[in-house]
Amino acid sequence: MDKAYFSSLIGILEILGDKNGISEINFVDKFIKTDVKEPNLKLCLDELEAYFSGKLKNFSVRLNIQATPFQKSVYKALLNIPYGTTATYSDVAKMIHNQKAQRAVGSANAKNKIPIIIPCHRVVGANSLGGYSGAGGLKTKEILLNLEKGNLS
């Protein structure tokens, strides 16, 4: 498994991946300069740079999702939420044909190992922003949503 680091407006991200795809993006405290050779990992860094610059709306990097079948169904649904929009936990439950699974959708979101690319930040509560388990919590979620809406100052 190769690692790369990316410094973003929401903090330092550690990206783990190999030829099979990106398997994790973690929020970390320390940037480590690495010589990235794996092509998919290089693509991920380029796409994250473009995303945080407001120039990329859809990631094409290959993913290697390590999750339960239910979680994978949720993540597949999240990948279909368009850039700059949001869906409620209930909407996602309907998208996976399990209308009573709102809480389970929230739990799957909290366990998402590939945030930003699998856009769990686009899932909100019916009357609130909901939660965000990444570093910075709801503040990070707000930054990502505002970035996608072009509202960053």
From TrEMBL:
Gene3D superfamilies with a match to the protein in the record: Methylated DNA-protein cysteine methyltransferase domain, Winged helix-like DNA-binding domain superfamily/Winged helix DNA-binding domain
GO terms for MF: methylated-DNA-[protein]-cysteine S-methyltransferase activity
GO biological process, alphabetically ordered: DNA alkylation repair; methylation
Catalyses which reaction(s): a 6-O-methyl-2'-deoxyguanosine in DNA + L-cysteinyl-[protein] = S-methyl-L-cysteinyl-[protein] + a 2'-deoxyguanosine in DNA; a 4-O-methyl-thymidine in DNA + L-cysteinyl-[protein] = a thymidine in DNA + S-methyl-L-cysteinyl-[protein]
InterPro entries registered for this protein in UniProt: MethylDNA_cys_MeTrfase_AS (IPR001497), MethylDNA_cys_MeTrfase_DNA-bd (IPR014048), MethylDNA_cys_MeTrfase_DNAb (IPR036217), MethylG_MeTrfase_N (IPR008332), MGMT (IPR023546), MGMT_N_sf (IPR036631), WH-like_DNA-bd_sf (IPR036388)
Catalytic machinery residues: C120
One GO term describing the cellular component: cytoplasm
Keyword line: Cytoplasm, DNA damage, DNA repair, Methyltransferase, Transferase
Pfam families hit by this protein: DNA_binding_1, Methyltransf_1N
Domain Methylguanine DNA methyltransferase ribonuclease-like: 3-64
EC numbers for this chain: 2.1.1.63
Domain Methylated-DNA-[protein]-cysteine S-methyltransferase DNA binding span(s) in chain numbering: 69-149
Subcellular location, record wording: Cytoplasm
Note: This enzyme catalyzes only one turnover and therefore is not strictly catalytic. According to one definition, an enzyme is a biocatalyst that acts repeatedly and over many reaction cycles.
HAMAP family on file: OGT
PANTHER family: METHYLATED-DNA--PROTEIN-CYSTEINE METHYLTRANSFERASE
Family: Belongs to the MGMT family.
Function according to Swiss-Prot or TrEMBL: Involved in the cellular defense against the biological effects of O6-methylguanine (O6-MeG) and O4-methylthymine (O4-MeT) in DNA. Repairs the methylated nucleobase in DNA by stoichiometrically transferring the methyl group to a cysteine residue in the enzyme. This is a suicide reaction: the enzyme is irreversibly inactivated.
Designated name of the protein: Methylated-DNA--protein-cysteine methyltransferase
